[in-house]
Amino acid sequence: MEFQQLLDAAAAAMSECGAVDFKSAFDPAQRSDWCELIKDVVAMANSGGGCIVLGLADDGSRSTWNPTVFTQLDPAQIGDQLRRYVEGLEDKVVVQSLSRGGEVLPALVVSASPVPKVFTNPGNYDKGGGKQTQAFPKGGLYFRHGAKSEPAEQADLSAAMERAIDCVRSKWLGNIRQVMEAPPGARVQVVTSEVRASVDPAATAIRVVDDPNALAYRVVSPDDTHPYRQKELVGEINKRSNGLKINRFDVQCLRRMLDGDNAHPEFFHESKFGSKQYSPAFADYIVHGCAADPEFIVKARNAVRQPTQ
């Protein structure tokens, strides 16, 4: 169920069920109360979600417990207690006010976990008289069985798998529906959730627009993509080229051989008020060219010196 559906179900429930649980009292100073509460939270998350209302007896009647004991609690403390016994569930629990019978009570709305959660530590506490009891064991997998939170059965695992499959199926159907409803001539293209600048010529081309619904574009500084000035580029290539030495004139010849700077923005960048900058990709291009053809630089020089017809 969705968030609001869980709240509505808890507000209208006359008794406990798989998705609704009542707690007549809660004392943050008692480990027993934390363990029992967390057991129900984990079981609900594993069972598709639920809502725990504090201040109600099992029959739904109002208890004498004062809800300010819980409402004054730091929400971070709830997350700390959850992390103590289970991993990756704190973002699935939201503390919410619930109106019931003309009174506002605190409630914990638990969203479904896509993957069933197991307890990472045992929920042991003192039952009184020096006797220890265990709300749940380490490695325990709990689900809701009616109004109880109990160890998993085969049917629970099957139901959890079906929920996971339904979730994936819903996403697939939603994507298919978008394709089916696309206007004639529309083009489907798979892109990442965030678009970044890239010097790779094979990268997906994008168009800059002012549409707030378009994918976000992360601007990368040219100082990062094209970090070399000409002097630094020559030094980098000479350091890597196994004895072959080039000079600034050779760089100019290679640029002209590549049909100018505008033809290869992945290699060259020229700011409005600064000198040209060169990318590591251009350095790689020269080093690999020299390794593949010992006459690579000579050919570039000759191509530039050759008179135009």
Descriptive overview:
The protein is of the alpha+beta class. 38% of the residues lie in helices and 17% in strands. The chain contains 10 helices and 12 strands. The strands form 5 sheets. It has a 4-stranded mixed beta sheet. A two-stranded antiparallel ribbon has the order 5-6. Helix 7 packs across helix 9 and helix 8 crosses helix 10.
Record keyword descriptors for this entry:
309 residues, alpha+beta, Methyltransferase, Cobalt-precorrin-4 Transmethylase, Domain 2, 2 domains, four-stranded mixed beta sheet, 10 helices
Quick gist of this model?
The chain has 309 residues and is of the alpha+beta class.
CATH superfamily of the largest domain: Schlafen, AAA domain
Residue windows where pLDDT falls under 50 for at least 5 positions: none
**Largest sheet composition:** 4 strands, mixed
The string of secondary-structure elements, in order, is: HEHEHHEEEEEEHEEHHHEEHH
Q: Fraction of residues in helices?
A: 25-40%
Write the CATH architecture name of the largest domain: 2-Layer Sandwich
Strand content: 15-25%
Computed over alpha carbons, the radius of gyration is 32 Å
**Do you know the CATH topology of the largest domain?**
Methyltransferase, Cobalt-precorrin-4 Transmethylase, Domain 2
